[in-house]
Design brief:
By secondary structure, this protein is of the alpha/beta class. The chain has two domains: 97 residues, Urease, subunit C, domain 1, CATH 2.30.40.10; 315 residues, Alpha-Beta Barrel (TIM Barrel). Helices cover 34% and strands 21% of the residues. The chain contains 14 helices and 18 strands. An eight-stranded parallel β-sheet has the order 6-7-8-9-10-11-12-13, with helices on both faces. A hairpin with a 2-residue loop joins strand 2 and strand 3. Helix 2 runs parallel beside helix 3 and helix 6 runs parallel beside helix 8. The two termini are 38 Å apart. The site of zinc ion has 5 residues, from loops.
Length: 433
């Protein structure tokens, strides 16, 4: 007798009528009409069962801090960074932990079971690192948290003595200390350094740090409308030089939206050759970029369809939820996928499915998650959606009817069905044709 069998599921790859057999936290078999018995049997009636959502880019140390100590009046990136600078000295470990745990609750309820979060290392106390390492341990039974050492104020630009005059170490030393403490991935922010040359130097230093330690790299890269911000070129070159292919990601890459087409025709093959992946953050890119434009006003998101066409892995991240940069959001990666789809005009059938992959399989690959997917041997981490396929899931921001982690039910939601009281009309609608 097995633990769980899910019957008559549609899968994201298009298969329908599939049973999924689960035992000891793993998927044992997948196929039509499996002749197996289980203690718990759930007939999902043809609805979509998906591996969990994965967020490739987030800031858990800032999430749910909206309004502290004040709101971002202009809504711009730079005011957000300044606001975070005001908030940072007032943070306590307990407050960061509490907010982060609360966000992880939201995530689980949305079927979001893996998050790569950047954590600010420009702090002589490394308070957020300590807090998020604690959160990582505490949520491990139900959510995979991957931490990126993120020097928010620039690895070369930030002087720790600004915050603690007695501090004797550099920003790079603080970042190294965070990695010693157990932070998983090396981050960076080359476009925020003082000069293009400093930006390039920061990419070199940080990639070499990652190479020495055998770690992955994920940099905030070219989050600007300046078409001359070309740090992704350096990131690809350093990835190639150090043999880091498959372990390096460029986040945002918004300058690519504004770059000269001829230059991009050289750049994208360089990224492909080096094995660099990309993460766009549609909700944030569409609200933060193009702020200096009048009209026409640029969208600012990176060139997602073109990167995908070149065979480059592209994921969508949430980036922010109720923090100094963004006052909205609720851990819903289907909202992220829907925004990405619209901003990139990815309305073809395959393109819409690519948008679903950008919040599931692709970020799982970028994070290097083990045992992700719906196949024998994979972890039994599964989400039952109130939709019949990935496109419908995006269209409806479908409710996560059930969420399983290692075969154990960890969240459930009601369907999105509404009751009607209209003469001569049906008494309920479920928004499906
Ligand atoms: Zn970010």
């Amino acid at each position: 007798m097995h633990a769980l069998i899910i019957r008559n599921a549609a899968l994201p790859d298009g298969r329908t009528g599939q049973d999924i057999l689960v035992d000891q936290g793993h998927i044992v078999a997948v196929g039509p009409a499996l002749a197996a018995q289980a203690a718990d049997s759930v007939d999902v009636g043809g609805l979509l069962v998906s591996p969990p959502f994965v967020d490739a880019h987030f800031h858990l140390d800032a999430a749910l801090s909206y309004g502290l100590p004040r709101v971002n009046a202009s809504g711009t990136l730079l005011e957000g960074i300044a606001l975070w600078g005001e908030l940072k000295p007032t943070l306590t470990r307990e407050a960061i932990v509490e907010r982060a745990l609360r966000y992880c609750d939201w995530a689980v309820a949305r079927g979001l079971l893996a998050v790569r979060t950047h954590v600010d290392t420009c702090d002589p106390r490394l308070l957020a690192c300590e807090a998020l390492l604690e959160v990582k341990r505490r949520v491990a039974p139900y959510l995979d948290l991957q931490l990126v050492a993120f020097p928010q104020d620039g690895i070369l630009r930030y002087d720790p003595r600004r915050d603690d005059p007695s501090c004797t170490v550099s920003a790079l030393a603080l970042l190294q200390r965070s990695l010693d403490m157990g932070v998983d991935v090396v981050g960076g922010i080359p476009h925020f350094e003082r000069t293009m040359a400093d930006g390039a130097e920061s990419v070199r230093l940080l990639c070499e740090e990652a190479a020495r330690r055998g770690l992955r790299v994920d940099m905030h890269c070219d989050e600007t409308d300046d078409p001359m911000s070309r740090h992704i070129e350096t990131l690809a070159a350093q990835t190639h030089r150090l043999g880091l292919g498959g372990r390096v990601n460029g986040s945002h890459l918004t300058s690519m939206h504004s770059m000269d087409n001829y230059y991009v025709s050289k750049l994208i093959p360089l990224m492909r050759e080096a094995g660099v992946s990309a993460v766009a953050n549609p909700l944030i890119n569409i609200t933060i970029q193009g702020r200096h434009d009048t009209y026409p006003k640029r969208r600012g998101m990176t060139r997602v369809p073109e990167l995908l066409a070149a065979g480059i892995d592209v994921a969508f991240g949430h980036d922010c939820v109720m923090d100094p940069w963004y006052s909205l959001g609720s851990a819903d990666m289907l909202e992220v996928a829907a925004m990405g789809l619209h901003v990139a005009q990815m309305t073809g059938q395959q393109a819409m499915r690519d948008c679903y992959r950008a919040v599931t399989e692709t970020p799982a690959k970028i994070l290097g998650l083990d045992g992700y997917g719906i196949a024998p041997g994979c972890h039994a981490d599964l989400v039952l959606l109130g939709a019949r396929d990935p496109v419908e899931a995006i269209r409806l921001r479908a409710p996560r009817l059930k969420v399983w982690r290692r075969g154990r039910l960890v969240a459930q939601s009601a369907s999105a069905e509404a009751q009607l009281v209209l003469p001569g009309r049906p008494d309920r609608v479920d928004f499906m044709l």
